[in-house]
UniProtKB/TrEMBL annotation:
The lineage of its organism: Bacteria, Bacillati, Actinomycetota, Actinomycetes, Kitasatosporales. The keyword Methyltransferase does not apply. Residues 1-21 form the signal peptide. SUPFAM superfamilies: Multidrug resistance efflux transporter EmrE (SSF103481). The keyword Signal applies. This is Integral membrane protein. The chain crosses the membrane at residues 70-92, 99-117, 129-151, 190-210, 217-238, 244-264. Keywords: Membrane, Signal, Transmembrane, Transmembrane helix.
Length: 281
């Protein structure tokens, strides 16, 4: 759980840095799947710093997924939205309201309940088709992302965040299905779902952060990477709570996610004007 919370801190700060970088980049096509926008954003130091934090968070997340159930890791990662709100308040000098600080406290309370209730990770490997289903989910994420480009800014950010969160959720489940990255895993579709799911998620998240509210995008991401993987872990991978504490785990999960999503109304990240176009010679 400590590793999960460390990953949430890394991801939360990274979202703010990447949002500022994406908005400072020259506007792309407006599509939810905009590789040109990602290329322009990744050339800025803020985005690179965010990627570094994402990398550190991913390492911590993998360690956590090897020791505790997916639902516990997912709910802990919901705290990244609280971190995003606090980081925006500090780095962008935006003042949090009392209701928003209360939502942060609710997230922490839910995580404390979940930490007390969570048992060891399940030992199940799931049905044989699960890896292929994860690959199909990545394809669906890209299709949905491409269709979200014409939505108004706020629902666009939320929808793209949800799609990117689904991609990150594919990564969470795939980590459990990949056995130590051995040679045998080269024939495992879960390995390719892990790689493509992460790439698709970053692509859509960059587009989501370029317009609309950073916390609306992060709220959608939290929902996408929490609910689905938690269900897969319980139904197919054998994740369970401690004896007699299942009710506390369910309550803590619900409280943590509800508190995180309530922060979706948090203020916008100020847009950074794109650099002026250079005149033709």
């Amino acid at each position: 759980m400590v590793c999960s919370l460390g990953a949430a801190v890394c991801y939360g700060i990274a979202s703010v840095l990447q949002a500022v970088a994406a908005r400072a980049a020259e506007p792309g096509s407006g599509s939810g799947v905009d590789a040109a926008l990602l290329w322009r954003a990744v050339r800025q130091w803020r985005y690179l710093a965010g990627l570094g934090l994402d990398g550190a968070g991913f390492v911590l997340q993998v360690v956590a997924l090897r020791h505790v159930p997916i639902y516990a890791v997912g709910a802990a990662l919901a705290a990244s939205l609280a971190v995003t709100a606090v980081a925006a308040a500090r780095l962008l000098r935006v003042r949090l309201s009392r209701a928003e600080w209360t939502a942060v406290a609710v997230v922490c309370a839910g995580l404390a309940m979940l930490g007390l209730a969570s048992g060891p990770e399940g030992s199940g490997t799931g049905p044989a088709w699960l890896g292929w289903a994860l690959l199909a989910a990545v394809g669906a994420v890209l299709v949905v992302g491409a269709g979200c480009g014409r939505l108004p800014d706020r629902p666009r950010a939320l929808a793209l965040g949800l799609a990117s969160g689904t991609g990150f959720g594919v990564v969470e489940v795939s980590v459990r299905l990949v056995d130590g990255f051995t040679a045998a895993d080269l024939r495992n579709p879960a390995l390719y779902a892990l790689l493509s799911g992460g790439g698709a998620a970053f692509l859509l998240l960059t587009s989501a952060l370029a317009r609309g509210s950073v916390t609306a995008a992060t709220a959608g991401m939290v929902l996408g990477e929490t609910v689905g993987p938690a269900a897969v872990g319980v139904v197919w991978l054998g994740d369970r709570a401690r004896e007699g504490l299942a009710w506390l785990g369910v309550l803590g999960f619900a409280v943590a996610v509800a508190g995180a999503l309530s922060l979706a109304r948090f203020g916008e990240v100020p847009a950074v004007p794109a650099p002026p176009a250079q005149p033709a010679p």
